[in-house]
Automatic annotation (TrEMBL):
Pfam families: Sigma70_r2 (PF04542), Sigma70_r4_2 (PF08281). Belongs to the sigma-70 factor family. ECF subfamily. Residues 125-176 form the RNA polymerase sigma factor 70 region 4 type domain. This is Sigma-70 family RNA polymerase sigma factor. It comes from Novosphingobium aquae. Residues 26-93 form the RNA polymerase sigma-70 region domain.
Amino acid sequence: MTTRIELADAITRIAKGDRKALEFVYRATSAKLFGICLRISGDRGEAEDALQDVYVNLWNAAGRFDAARASPVSWLAVFARNRTIDRLRRRRRLDASAPLEAAEHVADAAPLAEDALLAGEENARIHTCLETLEERQRGVIRTAFFDGVTYADLAARQDVPLGTVKSWVRRGLARLKQCLDA
């Protein structure tokens, strides 16, 4: 399993023109990013093209990555999401043969201002409540849910039984729920 540090280091090397680092990042993240592209586009061919765009653009934009602001997987996931949406928008603009009435069925993906404000407040509450957890619970919950690491991988990293990691997460989530409900 590739660690966050290894991916961050590889992205830094990509910014310096290291092709092997790009290959490493591709092998470590392409399955996950392809899933994101496919889920958004709904079309396998479009998802494959979007994924290719992700890595081409990564080659050019790797210097903008800041490990202090985001995990490599999160940053790449946003990259994949945005590339796929851009491709879909571009394709819809090119498809000018659709009647004007077809536009009423196209959803606006942007959240309403009120919803964005509420989501921001909720996000702040979650992070505040996360800080009330003991360190190992907070660590495994953040790693599992924000970085997408499996419980089995967490158990291996922590050198503890799988059941222990599951208990930490379960208890931590229960405390998190109590904090959020308060």
